[in-house]
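My main concern about presentation is that the manuscript never shows what a single data entry looks like. Each protein is reduced to its one-letter sequence and a matching series of backbone shape codes. For the editor and my fellow referees, an illustration may be useful. For illustration, here is how one protein appears when written out as sequence plus structure tokens:
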Amino acid sequence: QVQLVESGGGLVQAGGSLRLACEASGGAFSRYSMAWFRQTPGKDREFVANILWSGLRTDYADSVKGRFSISRNNANSTLYLQMSRLTPEDTAVYYCARNGKPWMIPTRRSAEFGSWGPGTQVTVSS
């Protein structure tokens, strides 16, 4: 059973940067595409970015394109999200997620991701 644990969240001023990490254990990390989602109270979970199991393909929500960068280190089973030029609209709980099946091309649909971390809070002050 895979376990995902996010870290790196916190409070940052608008225009600042944060780097989130998601450590995976208990599963074959390098076989699975991964993603970041975020959620604010009262709203549905929102796609942020995904990355192919090999790391050779990425996709971003329009709202974060050019500001966020997703990456992975398969050797240490860790997923990253580098966030820059943060705005108050980026305030949310950020979740990492693993695709439900190995070797799949990831999509933006949360239903296709079968394992989730507990989330890490990111708060951007104006």
